[in-house]
């Protein structure tokens, strides 16, 4: 019989330091009005010095495990753009801190699409019989790679983590993940990138400039690509799942910009009010964005068991993806 991955637990974690638009505008040539109207963001959270991505991942992971009612998993996948170190992966550290014994643990790097890629790899492992339970975490300390002088990125991104537990189940049961659509286009590598940080320059090569270690994004170009790619990917999984767009109760898109999410809803023909949004509170948290949006909607009581949920994301690489699920009865952690 075909096995499916079923969502069994959910949790989020935000660092305590809240940073308002006003605070950023005071040191950047910006304003609360500009940031709110262009992005929908009112505030974001930033990790204090010494707090690592693995710490936020542990916070979200422990809540997801608690809400699933079982502290054990066979595998852990961490999606992150901001690992604790370039080598090794952050996931084994997280597994160790969570007391997961010798569970398989690896990182996925797909920037803002990272959580969906990680979800697909966890679901795939379950479907193939390689695991009964998998913890999937999206976690970022994105503020660490922002150029403090770049107003176009500094106001957008925030830190945080979100996590889900997947368990083996039946494709027809409530909570089962549907098919995935994933894609990439490396031709767009320069649009969203941290240019430096690869192997050190050799011989006569000049080393990278200090600002090359910071994140850069060509926002205008990325805006429309995000709408198009998420729209196409969402439509593909709707077709594969056999849902019409009007069957979708909630669109949970990567929280890049509230204008992107609204255009995306228009693009696929979904009423805008069915799009979940928490970007005002947390900004763009990259790989943590989708599970944090799910945790936010769940905590607000907006998700009812049996609701049909469409997930989609777009990010650096370029990468994009989408999947569907029916919302299960999940304990609030
Ligand atoms: O998470 C991965 C996927 N990410 C995305 O999909 C993000 C996509 N892009 C965006 O969300 C938007 O493009 C941004 C929010 C990044 C920028 O908004 P925009 O409406 O596309 O603005 P823009 O880049 O075209 O800039 C318009 C103006 C420029 O000034 P001039 O050249 O017209 O004089 C910018 O310099 O706004 C200026 N600007 C700012 N002004 C005040 C850019 N950032 C700021 C700022 N405060 N923080």
Task: Give the topology.
Blueprint: E1 4-13, E2 17-20, H1 21-25, H2 32-39, E3 43-46, H3 53-68, E4 75-79, H4 91-97, E5 104-108, H5 114-127, E6 133-140, H6 151-154, E7 160-169, E8 177-184, E9 192-193, E10 216-217, H7 219-241, E11 250-253, H8 258-268, H9 279-282, H10 289-299, E12 308-315, E13 319-326
Parallel strand pairs: 4-5, 4-6, 11-12
Antiparallel strand pairs: 1-7, 2-3, 6-7, 8-13, 9-10, 12-13
Helix pairs in contact: 3-4, 7-8
The structure holds oxa(dethia)-CoA.
Task: Explain what the structure shows.
This protein folds into 2 domains: 4-169, Peroxisomal Thiolase, Chain A, domain 1 (3-Layer(aba) Sandwich); 177-197 and 206-326, Thiolase/Chalcone synthase (Peroxisomal Thiolase, Chain A, domain 1, 3-Layer(aba) Sandwich), CATH 3.40.47.10. α3 packs across α4 (91-97) and α7 (219-241) crosses α8 (258-268). The protein has 10 helices and 13 strands. It is an alpha/beta fold and 333 residues long. The radius of gyration is 19 Å and the shape is globular. Helix content is 31%, strand content 23%. The two termini are 32 Å apart. α4 links the parallel β4 (75-79) and β5. Bound molecules: oxa(dethia)-CoA.
Q: How many domains make up the 3D coordinates?
A: 2
Helices and strands, in N-to-C order? EEHHEHEHEHEHEEEEHEHHHEE
H/I helix tally: 10
By secondary-structure content and strand pairing, the structural class works out as alpha/beta
Ranges where pLDDT stays below 50 over 5 or more residues in a row are: none
Give the amount of beta strand, in percent: 15-25%
Strand order of the largest sheet: 1-7-6-4-5
Q: Please state the CA-atom Rg, rounded to the nearest Å.
A: 19 Å
Proportion of residues in helical segments: 25-40%
The fold-level CATH name of the largest domain is Peroxisomal Thiolase, Chain A, domain 1
CATH architecture term of the largest domain: 3-Layer(aba) Sandwich
What top-tier CATH class of the largest domain fits best? Alpha Beta
User: So what's the overall shape?
Assistant: globular
Termini gap: 32 Å
In total, the number of strands is: 13
What compounds are bound to the protein? oxa(dethia)-CoA
CATH superfamily of the largest domain: Thiolase/Chalcone synthase
Oligomer: single chain
Mean pLDDT: 96
